[in-house]
Design a protein that fits this description.
By secondary structure, the protein is an alpha+beta fold. The protein has one domain. Helices cover 29% and strands 17% of the residues. The chain has three helices and six strands, in the order E-E-E-E-E-E-H-H-H. The strands form two sheets. The protein has a four-stranded antiparallel β-sheet with strand order 1-2-3-4. Strands 5-6 form a two-stranded antiparallel ribbon. The longest helix is centred in the last third of the chain and has 14 residues. It starts with a strand and ends with a helix. The protein binds zinc ion (2 copies). The site of one zinc ion has 7 residues, from loops.
Length: 108
C-alpha cells in the first residue's frame, strides 16, 4: 500500500540543499505537498502530482533567483536525510523503497 508523508519544514530545499532556510512546501494552489515511497510528489487533492525527478522546488534562498528549480539526486537524497521527522514517521522500509525508486528515476 502506498503511504504518503507530508513534507514539513524540516525537509530542506532539495534544489539548493539549503538547511538554514525552511519552507512550507505547497503546490501553486497552496495545498500541502506529500511524498510517497514510489518517488511521487503530490499535493493534498492530488491535482498536482509528478515524479521527484520532474518536481521543481523554490525556497527563500537567493540561489533560486525567484525561479523554481529541479533537484539532482544528491540534493534530494540530502534533503531526505535531513528530514528526521519524515524518516521516523515513514519508517526504514518506506525510506529504502523511496531511495530505490528515486535512484531509478535518475537512472542511478
Ligand atoms: Zn495542488
Ligand atoms: Zn532552495
Amino acid at each position: 500500500m502506498v503511504k504518503r508523508i507530508k513534507l514539513r519544514k524540516d525537509f530542506p530545499c532539495p534544489a539548493c540543499a539549503n538547511q538554514r532556510i525552511s519552507s512550507d512546501w505547497t503546490c501553486t494552489d497552496g495545498e500541502p505537498l506529500y511524498l510517497n515511497e514510489l518517488g511521487v510528489v503530490e499535493c493534498q487533492s492530488g491535482k498536482h502530482s509528478g515524479k521527484v525527478i520532474n518536481q521543481t522546488w523554490k525556497c527563500e534562498s537567493s540561489y533560486h533567483n525567484g525561479q523554481y528549480q529541479k533537484a539532482d539526486l544528491e540534493g534530494f537524497t540530502f534533503a531526505l536525510s535531513q528530514a528526521v521527522q519524515l524518516m521516523s514517521e515513514a519508517g526504514p522500509e518506506w525510506v529504502a523503497n523511496l531511495v530505490t525508486e528515486v535512484g531509478n528515476q535518475y537512472g542511478k
